[in-house]
Write a structure and sequence with these properties.
ten-stranded mixed beta sheet, 44% helix, 318 residues
Length: 318
């Protein structure tokens, strides 16, 4: 027993020592989606602010593939020292239900630092489609389901999850067309090859303002402050259709608690800065600060919800 206590104290002392000198070198943010995606935008915005405060560069590495499981597996297997950090989205909670062998255990191999942002998705179509409301889109699809398809930022992405919730609530069928990320999906809606897309508002807002995309509804329970005239999907006639895309910071489970606390403090400091608040507000995103414990509990609850949606929609990886 004495040896065990001494061992625990040694580990705690080592973690404290690591935290006191942390960070002593550049930090890497691993982002599972493309540059220009909502997750990437949040990672770069928060990373810039944290880098200035912590006095070390924060490098962004976009590691694409398999709904973010490739990036998550890389971080899960990395050294647990606080220098390799996963900045993931809601897809992190969806993937355990969607992928039978992702290469890591979401709850055992990884742990949360904090959520960073809550972002509405917005249902967008090309203006030439002529749909002005969510109800008009649904009616068109019900009249000729074989004619239509919808884009996502990839199988297992938050945009995919949102699309399936919408499809189940609306009682419609259409072809799902997954892409490598949000920019590709939006470009193909603009180009006319896809009929609709639940785009993260942070990425879609400039295109909506330039009238290159038509916004039909937003996915959250409350309207987006940056699109006050666009109804929520619930207001537009689909009860229980709300969905919030979140972005969060995650590290290997064995990362010292003192390092996790340091990262949490720095991330929350960044989220509370007037500059970042203003930047997020302009993107339609809300800061989403949580303690590590609260974020882990939130991830678990999101996993439970995602599992039910995957089963109801009969989703499968391709």
């Amino acid at each position: 027993m004495k040896r065990f206590v001494l061992s625990v104290l040694s580990v705690l002392a080592l973690g404290s020592a690591l935290a006191q000198g942390y960070p002593a070198k550049p930090i890497k943010f691993i982002v599972p989606f493309t540059a220009g995606s909502a997750t990437d935008i949040v990672a770069r915005s928060v990373g810039d602010a944290m880098s200035r405060s912590m006095g070390q560069p924060i490098v962004i590495e976009n590691k694409l593939g398999a709904g973010g499981t490739i990036a998550a597996a890389q971080v899960a297997k990395s050294e647990a020292d606080g220098y390799t950090i996963l900045v993931h989205s809601s897809a992190h909670a969806l993937n355990p239900a969607l992928y039978s062998s992702p290469g890591y255990d979401t709850l055992k191999d990884l742990t949360g630092v904090t959520a960073l942002a809550a972002i509405p998705n917005v249902l967008v179509v090309h203006p030439a489609k002529g749909w002005k409301t969510q109800a008009e889109l649904i009616a068109a699809v019900k009249a000729n389901p074989a004619k239509f398809n919808y884009a996502s930022a990839g199988i297992g992405s938050g945009t995919h999850m949102n699309a399936e919730i919408f499809r189940l609530q609306a009682g419609i069928e259409a072809l799902h067309v997954p892409y490598k990320g949000t920019p590709d999906a939006m470009n193909n809606v603009i180009g006319g090859s896809n009929d609709w897309f639940f785009a993260p508002l942070a990425a879609a807002l400039p295109l909506i303002r330039d009238n290159r995309l038509q916004a039909l509804s937003v996915s959250t329970k409350m309207r987006a402050s940056t699109l006050p005239d666009v109804p929520t999907s619930i207001e537009a006639g689909l009860p229980a259709s709300d969905y919030t895309l979140w972005v969060g910071m995650i590290v290997p489970a064995a990362t010292p608690a003192a390092v996790i606390r340091k990262l949490n403090e720095e991330a929350l400091k960044a989220l509370n800065s007037p500059e970042l608040k203003d930047r997020m507000s302009k993107l339609g995103a809300d800061p989403f600060p949580l303690s590590p414990e609260a974020f882990n509990a939130y991830i678990k609850s999101e996993m439970d919800v995602a599992a039910r949606i995957v089963k109801a929609a009969n989703l499968k990886t391709q």
